[in-house]
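Hi support team,

I submitted a single chain yesterday and got back a structure, but I'm not sure I'm reading the token output correctly. Could someone confirm the output below corresponds to the sequence I sent? I've pasted both exactly as they appear in my results page.

Thanks,
R.
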Amino acid sequence: MRFRNIILVFTVAALALSGCKNSTGEAAQAKTIKNVKVETASNAAVQNSMTLNGKIKEKSLTSISFRVGGPLKKLNVKPGDYVRAGQLIAEMDKRDYELQVETTKAQFEQVEGEYKRYKQLIDQNKIPENTFEKIKSGYLMAKTAYENAQNQLRDTELKAPFSGYIYEKFVENFQTVGAGTPIVSIIDNSHLEVVVSVSESQLNRVKSDKKSYLNVANAGISKMPVKLLSVSGKAMNDGLYEVKFSFENKDNSKVAPGMTAEVTIYSQAEKNRLSVPQTAIFHEKTSTYVWVYNPSTSKVEKREVRISLDGTKGRVNLVSGIQNGEKIVTAGVHYLVDGQKVKPLPEPSVTNVGGLL
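Hi R., thanks for writing in. Yes, this is the structure output for that exact sequence:
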């Protein structure tokens, strides 16, 4: 009798545990029904835009130098000075070069007179041709030496090749410098560049640029038109590509090299592309997916898609993968599994923005 009672107790306990287990399983299954936000995919021609952060850079930074050597007599500029094209920047001691001009001038005038006399004689056939050729050769050499001396004298004055700002000074007054020694460097500010870095996925978007605008907050610049200048053909060490835009630096502009800037690129998307929020997109390995919600089964299906171009306000355009009118999950996409049951959240009314009430 006692043995039968023990068996009965164990049987009742097993049935109770089994009931608890089923109840727990049903509760766990119920918890898998997640609330999700969905949106109906629809055709749209989207005006695409993309904003990139970058830096303002000068068009060119050029070091200038004398073509001759000697003691530096006067340096007229300092870093930060603005110079105009042709303005005198530095001057070298001219004494030796002035003497060279006088010497070569005297030699040239002497040979020139002799050349003219022999020219008359050769025209009258009174001297041999080879005699005149020697005189002519000496005349040309003297003329070249005189012209070279004049050029060297002019080269003792260093003038700005273009308008810009003095960036750096490399020498001091009375220092003896050689030909080609950098004296100062000048920034050409007539045109500036804005340099940005883009990822591989953004390259096509940049290359399809229709119009671009520059914003420089610290200079009070907003929507200044810029032109695509170049796109690097090879990625840098960080895996990004360097893109340059150029723009004219007007006289009243306060933009300066080194400033932080933004470039907004606009390009017209292809018509009849399906537009979905960026938050609906997720990636697995090398493929791109969205979750498609089926109202008849209340389940989601993982669907591979192909992106065309990024759209405005956090949206993307899709080339393939979904059809017009299908419902797409737009939030919590990383926490779903294929075939999972979900419950769409109701859309907030105009008077209950954010669904807080």
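A quick pointer for reading it: The chain is about 25% helix and 40% strand. Let us know if anything else looks off.

Best,
Support desk
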